[in-house]
Amino acid sequence: MNSVRGLLPASVISIQNSCFIYPACQKCLSRLILDSRRFNCLKCGCTGEAKDASYRYRLSLKVADTSDLFDITVFGSCLDPFFGVTAKNLQRCIQDFNQLSGETDTDASPGVLVQAVETCFIGKRFIFGV
Predict the structure, then answer these.
(1) Which of 11, 25, 26, 111 could hold 41 in an S-S bridge, CB 3.0 to 4.6 Å?
(2) Which residues contact 45 (CB under 8 A, 6 or more apart)?
(3) Membrane-crossing residues (predicted)?
(4) What are the sequence ranges of the domains in the chain?
């Protein structure tokens, strides 16, 4: 694996998916498997109650610099300022909204949230650490 790090100034072309947060293991940051009562990390074996699951941002973007296109995924709390809340608090808001609207897909982000994220990022230029 190449360990060279650098900065990439690029413009966001599109948002690759509408799932901006995921339940994350507090030990290894891998995606947790959730059921109605418990969570389980397949990578490190961590388990606990579903209500205590931690959440983390994951924003997958298609970006372009002056000559190339790149798929970039931004993880973690660096996205807190853009969303205005932590990933766990956003998850609570999405869950409450989905319950009120009758949405059955618990991972679904409300359309208005997807629209807001697109407005915030698409067409904007950022410097990505890669």
Answers:
(1) 25
(2) none
(3) none
(4) 7-129
Evaluate if pTM is beyond 0.90.
no
Q: Cα separation of 19 and 22, whole Å?
A: 8
Residue 109 class from Cβ within 10 Å (0-12 exposed, 13-18 middle, 19+ buried)?
A: buried
Cα separation values, 44 from 22, 41, 47, 75, 128, Å: 17, 6, 9, 19, 29
**pLDDT single digits (tens) 60-99:** 999 999 999 999 999 999 999 999 999 999 999 988 888 8
* Distance from chain centroid for Cα 16: 11
pLDDT of residue 30: 95
Q: Which residue has the tokens 């300022």?
A: 81
CA atoms within 13 Å, Cβ hemisphere of 26: 10
What would the DSSP string read from start to end of 12-73? Answer: EEEE--S--EEEE-TTT-PBEEE-SSEEEETTT--EEEGGG-EEEEEEEEEEE-SS-EEEEE
Return the SS3 of 3.
coil
Which tokens belong to 5? 């790090």
